[in-house]
Amino acid sequence: MSQTRDEQEIRSEGGFSRRDFIKTAAAVGAGVLAVQAVGGVREANAAEEAKKEAAAATAAAAGKSALKLDQVLKVAREKMYPRCRVCPECDGVACSGEVPGMGGIDSGAAFRNNLTALEKYKLKMVTFHEVKKPDTSITLFGVKLSMPIMSAVTGGVTYNMGLQGKVSEEEYMEGIVAGCIQAGTIGFAADGIGDPLAVYETRLKTVAKYRGQAAAQIKPRTQAEIIERIRLIEQAGAPFFAIDIDSAGRASRALPGRTVEPKSLKQLKEIAKSTKLPFIIKGIMTVDEAKKAIDVGAAGIVVSNHGGRVLDHTPGSAQVLAAIADSVKGKIVILSDGGIRYGADVLKSLALGADAVLVGRPLIRGSVGGGPEGVALILKKMQGELVVSMTLTGTADVKKVSRSILV
Ligand SMILES: Cc1cc2nc3c(=O)[nH]c(=O)nc-3n(C[C@H](O)[C@H](O)[C@H](O)COP(=O)(O)O)c2cc1C
């Protein structure tokens, strides 16, 4: 009989480990199915569900979404478990080492470091000031955004989360892209290492559908493959594109005859020169490479350890962000990602020098659990939290966040 991954883990570890306890606790804490199996609770839940459905129908008729976060997370959990437990806090503990999956690579330390690096900074509360209505809007490469928060690049989600037959790549991507647009921001269409060109072309159809409102990403493939994809991105009308340069370490996952590779400065220059579109280099973790990104003609960088999925024991992005911003702020657009879960995390990142942030795993949960509405709901929640954080730190504008708000 085939075993689930969890069953295999329990057997191989010879009992009930701490990790299994965390998994179970997370699942129970979040109200997973076992609780609902109790008859009375099930009936109460059914009545509750019916009420929610009626409320959703009324709201839909009025043109509003009544989707609630707990519903989105419940559906996400049902679809992704055990690949993702949809823990109350998405912190990389229960899923450590689970790549493919939702986790961080190997020990999972790099994923967790993203959260602990942000946690080290605290916000200074200030309440005597004139800031009545904080401004969260920005313009990024000519695109107006309602908030300095975008969807991160998340490719191969159906494969990573075992969603085959439940959510297609197209549905997933539609959720991300359309959800970002609903919230007034922008998302990325991803490129998978193993994807042939035809699959990439399918994803770019969504970019073309939302012309000018969806960005695209390319893996660090051979130069010829990258340039070929840049032409397609231009045709699809993406306003900018990124290459996750740090995927170079995942060559073993590329298809036979294809490759991903580290890029020389000469190759990066060639890529920047090959297009008028702003080129963003994702996976910058040092001041030295941030400066070099400017030299090669990149328009932006993403300070990122790829959500801790490519190299174990890297620092959290927030740990290196300030030094990078001190060196290149104003000369190149600085984006940052990793462990951003709340509006306060966004504000901390801006105070450290980011112009905007990207959010990965929380929006995967949003798209799988609620499609575009689920993604928009999570983004708007973060925007609301950002407004509160700005109000209580006396920050008027996300474009001018002082580092002095950090303790
Ligand atoms: C399932 C999954 C797939 C991802 N796929 C890609 C990818 O194809 N390209 C990329 O640049 N980053 C990818 N990432 C990393 C994200 O873009 C981002 O850097 C990271 O998720 C941010 O951290 P967070 O999830 O803690 O917000 C992926 C992350 C996850 C969880």
CATH topology of the largest domain: TIM Barrel
Give the tally of structural domains. Answer: 2
User: Distance between the terminal alpha carbons, to the nearest Å?
Assistant: 55 Å
Shape by Cα distribution = globular
Low-confidence stretches are: 1-42
Structural class: alpha/beta
Instruction: State the strand order across the main sheet.
Output: 3-10-9-8-7-6-5-4
Total strands: the figure is: 10
Averaged pLDDT: 87
Largest sheet: number of strands, sense, barrel closure: 8 strands, parallel
Summed up, the helix count is 15
The radius of gyration computed from the alpha-carbon positions, rounded to a whole number of angstroms, is: 21 Å
Small ligands present: flavin mononucleotide
Helix content: 40-55%
Kindly provide the name of the CATH class of the largest domain.
Answer: Alpha Beta
CATH-defined superfamily of the largest domain: Aldolase class I
- SSE series: HHHHHHEEEHHEHEHEHEHEHEHEH
* Percent of sequence in beta strands: 5-15%
Short note summarizing the structure:
The chain has 407 residues and is of the alpha/beta class.
Descriptive account of the structure:
The strands form two sheets. Strands 3-10-9-8-7-6-5-4 form an eight-stranded parallel sheet. Strands 1-2 form a two-stranded antiparallel sheet. The longest helix has 31 residues. Helix 8 runs parallel beside helix 15, helix 9 runs parallel beside helix 10 and helix 12 crosses helix 13. Strand 8, helix 13 and strand 9 form a beta-alpha-beta unit. The chain folds into two domains: 115 residues, no CATH class; 268 residues, TIM Barrel, CATH 3.20.20.70. The protein is built from 15 helices and ten strands. With 407 residues, it is of the alpha/beta class. The termini are far apart. 45% of the residues are buried. The structure holds flavin mononucleotide (FMN). The site of flavin mononucleotide has 24 residues, from helix 7.
